Amino acid sequence: MNSEKLSFGESIRIFGKALKISMKAKTLPSYIVTLLGFPMAFIPTLIAYAIRSFSDGVQSLYGAGTAAIVNVLGMFVLLSCAYILQLTWNTVRNFYAKADALKILRYMKERILRCTCDVKYKYIENHDDFKQRIRFAETQAGERVAESMTMIIMLIQNIITFVSIIIVLLEIDVWVVVILIAACTPAVVMAYYFKDEEYISKTKWIYESLMAAAYYFESTWSNSINEVRFFGLYPWLKGKYRGMMNRYLVKKNKMTAKHTFFNALADLLRNGVYIAVLLITVRRIFENPSMGIGAFMLVFTMAGQLQNVTASIFVAAAQFASDVRYMQDFFYLDTLEYEKRDADAEPFESFDIGFENVSFSYPNTEREVLHNLNVRIREGEKVAIVGENGSGKSTFVSLLCALYEPDSGKITMGGEDIHINLSRTRKTLSAIFQDFAHYEATIRENITVSDGKRDTSEAQLLELAGRVSSLEVISEQPDGLDEIVGSFSPTGNNLSGGQWQKIAITRCAYRENANIMVLDEPTAALDPLAEAELYRNFASLTGERTTILISHRLGITSLVDRILVFDNGRIVEDGNHKTLMAQGRLYAKMYKAQAQWYN
Asked: Which of 45, 403, 410, 572 could make an SS bond with 121 (beta carbons 3.0 to 4.6 A apart)?
């Protein structure tokens, strides 16, 4: 969202990029309709001529013979056909314009989705106001890019119509043309000013718009609806929503009132001039009766059209100047830093993990979450990471998964920096995060999506599910692995939190060539029996893989080779369960605090 004025050259460059995108959506029939639009731009002029001839013919019917009547009827049929052709053409053109716009909008949505999935993760944390910018691109800028092709074609066609109407009206009186065009000037100036003001306003009001949307979705989103209903939070959320919307509407209504007032003045001027032009035409006919009533009908028909098409041309030019700034905001997506992907990358051959003097702060914050961290995890080692909330555990995992780059220091696998080839790093890893996904799909897809290239039979999937404690979830479903689950399931079949977590664990284990497993709170949503079963199957789940496990429930720590205790962004203890309990420090206190509730 840029408040600086663009140069003419930069505007043309941006508009050219938009046209390339817009042209991608056009099919052969759409191109044919577009090309036919250029000769069809002469239709208004031909209709005006037909009206003039028809009017003159009707005027001359008194005392005329059969031939004159036949001629007038022929003109009437021709005029009717012209109107039908124009109506048909407008219908077809509008159909293809809407179809093209929908295709381009689909492309825009896919482009924004790809951006969100491929940009460096710092943007997800709202670096460079990414969330506001992506929202603006989605709701405002993308539509302007989609309409760019239609806008330029309509502008050219309007220019053709404009020139043809001027040529016709010059036959009546040159002042008719001059006055009609001059009367459009105020509307054109205001259109340019208003479009510029509208853009600046929308960029300034994006915060209110985002917050209003956030409060609205909090009231309706399935993740929060139970709490909203139970605590009766609707009045509070409505107040928050209304407060933000009122701030937005006060500003919007003030601007709208100003625009409406000045547009009304411009329309009043245009209508007054229209009447003046008709009076000029009457005077010309009075001076030269041979012009006939057809001349009046010609001006009556074309004066309004000239005003409309003149306004359309200059308003389109103003729209162009405004829309280019929206387009620039969309193409902001091209300026971001993207992760480099390598589809042919192979996993690491050595799986030793090293953190060397690693420090990290989240984007837009000064607080250092990890401080000069040094740790090495050997291949095949099972490591639990424990600590209080906010101690840096999940940040450690995010850095290991290469979602973020450290501010200083280096993270390695087999001695190689994990950020040199992100695809290689992520093919070596499999992970389940705290906020694991619930995909609106079949259970089979929810599992196999983690390794799309792997070909697995149903028996193999069920065998894996048995090893990671999710077989019961699958067996309970009417269609087994092919049961569609989620909030929008056709049968209303949404899994419980614990069931979803079991599926997420299975998805993590399904990744075939991942020799490092990262499990961030894998038992958070499980009941005690399911948690105990996971502990029993832990060796089967992880196999010989290097395993990094984060858990606030310390019962599982007795199953791992090593425990790293985090406190305030540092590793303060490192050892196995027996050693750390003997030391009697933070880990021992945490373990005893939990154990007392089970004794």
From this structure: 403
